[in-house]
TrEMBL record:
A Pfam family recorded for this sequence: Acyltransferase
Keyword Acyltransferase: yes
GO molecular function: 1-acylglycerol-3-phosphate O-acyltransferase activity
UniProt lineage: Bacteria, Pseudomonadati, Pseudomonadota, Acidithiobacillia, Acidithiobacillales
Pathway(s) annotated for this protein in UniProt: Lipid metabolism
Superkingdom, natural source: Bacteria
GO biological process: phosphatidic acid biosynthetic process
Protein name (Swiss-Prot/TrEMBL): Phospholipid/glycerol acyltransferase
Organism (species): Acidithiobacillus ferrivorans
Keyword list, A-Z: Acyltransferase, Transferase
Ranges for domain Phospholipid/glycerol acyltransferase: 48-156
């Protein structure tokens, strides 16, 4: 999925639909959910990998609402099976990924997105409240040399269903850390260890 030079990145470039969606998410996360967040530390230009812990389906909504750059996520493919969520994800140029195996195609699309100077959102745990860190993050860091921006969400949890989670008011808090810069030769253990440590420190 190579993005063209005209694909929206900064808020000033967003389409009417994208601006409307962002305003809707901002209102929902700030006023309905009562969420709070610190100023984002994502660079104003250039590629970046936004790495956050994953506690509920609300997480990407808070990350989008708290930023004025387009964030494209690696998203479980099953969310694209729903027409409503698929339309929303397409507005952020997100990338469907299979979780039952290593999805090389999705990783290649993510690398191209970073090569185009975009922001990629990723949940290193690979799923909500999972304990095993995925190595795709380290591969993307080595391939793109993009900085990793750690973020941490607390005060939210996944309910019995996605709908129940969206309806339940939880007052989450989102914090951003200092961007991490890795050498292209850094091994996976170093990248993953430093990233997860930075995320945990924000708790």
């Amino acid at each position: 999925m190579g993005l063209s030079s005209t694909t929206a990145d900064q808020a000033t470039e967003w389409s009417f639909t994208q601006r409307s969606l962002h305003a809707l998410l901002y209102g929902y996360t700030r006023f309905y959910q009562g969420g709070h967040w610190e100023p984002s530390s994502i660079p104003t230009t250039g590629p970046a990998i936004l790495a956050c812990n994953h506690v509920s389906v609300l997480d990407p909504l808070f990350l989008v609402a708290s930023n004025c750059r387009m964030i494209s996520f690696l998203v479980a493919r099953e969310y694209y099976d729903n027409a409503w969520t698929r339309r929303l994800l397409e507005q952020t140029y997100s990338i469907p990924v299979r979780r039952d195996r290593r999805d090389v195609g999705a990783l290649l699309q993510a690398r191209r997105l970073l090569e185009d100077g975009r922001v990629l959102g990723i949940f290193p745990e690979g799923g909500i409240n999972r304990g095993q860190t995925q190595k795709g993050l380290a591969w993307l860091v080595r391939e793109s040399a993009a900085p990793v921006v750690p973020a941490h969400i607390s005060g939210a949890r996944q309910g019995r269903s996605d709908l129940a989670t969206w309806l339940h008011r939880q007052r989450p808090l989102l914090r951003y850390g200092v961007p991490l810069h890795f050498h292209r030769d850094a091994d996976a253990a170093e990248v993953l260890g430093a990233t997860m440590s930075a995320i945990t420190t924000l708790a």
